[in-house]
Amino acid sequence: MQQVIVITGASSGFGALAARALAHAGHIVYASMRETKGRNAPQVAEAARYAAEHGVDLRSVELDVAASASVEAGIASIVADCGRLDAVIHNAGHMSFGPAEAFTPEQFAQLYDINVLSTQRVNRAALPQLRKQGKGLVMWISSSSARGGTPPYLSPYFAAKAAMDSLAVSYASELARWGIETAIIVPGAFTKGTNHFAHAGAPADQARAAEYDSGPYARVPQQALQGLAALEPADADAGSVAEAIVAVIGLPFGSRPFRTHIDPSQDGCEIVNGVADRVRSEMFRRIGLEDLLHPKVIG
To answer: Which has fewest Cβ within 10 Å: 217, 219, 247, 252?
Structure first.
């Protein structure tokens, strides 16, 4: 069944890959990004070229997840175009790399804003439409770093993704009776195929970072990055995340798995999440709210 889907942070990486894959699957896909007439104008042009060449419905929409007005305008334009919105995919995010102490509190706040508060802006703009429809899907692109092995020097990103994952879990039960389903996609550390690591932010306090680099942690950055890359199988493909997104969205309403892990490196997140999600389910049963574990079919 064709769905109207918006995906945030779709100018590159998992977002761009998923937008194309979903369009090929027959959906109407809005690849949202900021500065569509500025720095991302080439990405908008490429999406239009790709859509024309492949005969798919892939559209771009101006939507800056850091600005509520932009988010509200972007979502409103999609609903105006199509009369509905079936799925929201929270994909926008940014990574940082360096010793935690060398990042300023303002940098932590900025990473939290991009990775967590952005989802709240999008939800507040989109959920009224999904609740009005009595049916919809909210998909969250989490990270195995939220509960898996956590190498050093990635703390602002890890903390933000853990917060985003926690928010996704809380939202799931609060949306179920509105007929809105939740699906959490959990990619592992793909070091190739995206710009995630290449575009990672650096600490603002370079003097503090230098104390780590010249002290007992002198080799840690290289060892952490090389170690992550070594764990990744040679055939690991970032496109597999897009394939998983397409597969989950294509499942019948109410049958989608709560979590889907795509982690070639097997960092242990799937095991920890499995335990945490079972504990959550048992708690809901004990307090008489078991129905909130699954979306209600309305109408």
So the answer is: 252
